[in-house]
Amino acid sequence: MDKKLKMETLAFVLLLVAFPITSWGTTAGNDLVWWIGLISLVAGGLVPVMTRYMDHSGDMIRDVGMEFDDRTS
């Protein structure tokens, strides 16, 4: 996996985890847990923007098109 895919997977996981953590922190009245959820939500939203400005010169270039499709049909 290249760096961009790893970072976007991390962002997706952060966004998935942020909502239950924030909800639990709100219902339990625990401010620390609520802040952790909010920080993970913000980080999950900012990571894809950061990947736009990463150095992609070392990424592997793949051919695109039906003839290069790896899926079985």
**Separation of termini?**
24 Å
Tell me what portion of residues adopts beta-strand conformation: under 5%
Give me the secondary-structure category.
mainly alpha
SSE succession: HH
- Rg, Å, rounded: 18 Å
Oligomer: single chain
Let me know the number of strands. 0
List the helices and strands and how they pair.
Elements: H1 3-28, H2 31-52
Helix pairs in contact: 1-2
Task: Provide key terms for this protein.
66% helix; elongated; mainly alpha; 2 helices; 73 residues
Description:
This protein is 66% helix and 0% strand. It is built from two helices and no strands. It has a domain at 20-51. The mean pLDDT is 86. The chain has 73 residues and is an all-alpha fold. Helix 1 (3-28) runs antiparallel to helix 2 (31-52). It has helices spanning 3-28, 31-52.
Quick overview of this protein structure:
The protein has 73 residues and is mainly alpha-helical. The chain has helices spanning 3-28, 31-52.
